[in-house]
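TASK: fixed-backbone design
INPUT:
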């Protein structure tokens, strides 16, 4: 699937900025904020998520990211919209939930999209073993490779690849919503269209293009897509 690339948001450190993406943050306070031209961050639109195409900052430890809330999720406001900003699930967890592998399978492993070469990034998952002083990081090469580092380690090769989840209210499915342009997603896959109708079981959206074949929670017939409400779907007005 060809990814949709979005440029928005910028990096701010200790109230100073905006800073260039990839800035050395060491263990200083930083956050994401309003978009600044030329210093905006770049994201892949992956269903319900916006995933950084590269590390927003380098030379920052897992421990410090956790202190700032950016491992498991901290609220940020970008251009008037609220998001939860967190790290990716990258494996090494008991539930085996690996968002990084799923993203590469769905949108491709191309380094020109994900910039994983010569660059590690921290993940959200805790180690399965007894050593709680280490954390797993992905990247550098090949795309799915990874290794362990001390959780408090800072290095120019390790950074923070941010993920954004919208905290904005979803579209209420009422008669007044018919005809609105919507973004429909489930997990890391989604599509845009115009809401045509809905009932207690399905949502019907009119679209202009053919959907990816991997979407198993939606059925397309011509320019109409029927989405089961039994799936864990999210719908936002766009």
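OUTPUT:
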């Amino acid at each position: 699937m060809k990814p949709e690339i979005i440029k928005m948001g910028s990096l701010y450190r200790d109230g100073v900025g905006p800073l260039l993406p990839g800035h050395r943050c060491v263990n200083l306070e930083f956050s994401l904020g309003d978009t600044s031209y030329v210093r905006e961050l770049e994201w892949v639109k992956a269903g319900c998520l916006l995933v950084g195409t590269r590390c927003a900052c380098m030379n920052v430890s897992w421990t410090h990211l956790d202190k700032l809330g950016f491992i498991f999720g901290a609220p940020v406001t970008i251009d008037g919209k609220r998001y939860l900003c967190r790290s990716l699930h990258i494996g090494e967890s008991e539930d085996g939930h690996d968002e990084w592998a799923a993203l590469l399978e769905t949108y491709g492993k191309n380094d020109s999209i994900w910039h994983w070469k010569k660059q590690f990034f921290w993940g959200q998952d805790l180690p399965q073993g007894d050593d709680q002083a280490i954390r797993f990081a992905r990247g550098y090469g090949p795309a799915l490779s990874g290794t362990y580092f001390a959780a408090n380690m800072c290095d120019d090769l390790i950074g923070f690849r941010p993920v954004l989840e919208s905290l904005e209210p979803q579209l209420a499915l009422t008669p007044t919503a018919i005809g609105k342009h919507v973004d429909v997603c489930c997990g890391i896959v989604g599509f845009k269209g115009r809401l045509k109708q809905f009932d207690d079981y399905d949502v019907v959206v009119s679209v202009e293009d053919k959907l990816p074949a991997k979407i198993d929670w939606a059925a397309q017939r011509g320019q109409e897509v029927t989405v089961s409400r039994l799936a864990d779907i999210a719908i936002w007005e766009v």
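COMMENT: Residues 99-107 form the longest helix (9 residues).
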